Amino acid sequence: MLTVTRSHTTALSRLGHALSDPTRAGVLLALRNGPAYPSELADDLGVSRQVMSNQLAYLRGCGLVEAVPEGRRSSYRLADVDLAPALGGLLPVVLSVEPDCCAGEECTCT
Questions:
Q1: What is the model's pTM?
Q2: Where is the HTH arsR-type domain positioned along the sequence (predicted)?
Q3: What is the pLDDT of residues 91-101, one digit of tens each?
């Protein structure tokens, strides 16, 4: 069994904080399908490009996403190949705990 260290709890807390914002969670879930441009992510998630820029900067700072320069533009991708399957595995667990919790636009869980 893995010995849990302070760095483990810090890393997990960082991921939890990143997932605590619906826009950031949406970005991470969207990037499971592959790289995307900020403008596409903003449109898909219904936020302004400035909001998307701020959220991508936050996720970059956490080490969860990385920018891939492509000429004058950059696309974004998940920073670690293990993150996509981890998010994919986490989603059904969360939904099985309270499947109707977030059926609408706003989460109603208390």
A1: 0.82
A2: 4-98
A3: 888 877 766 66
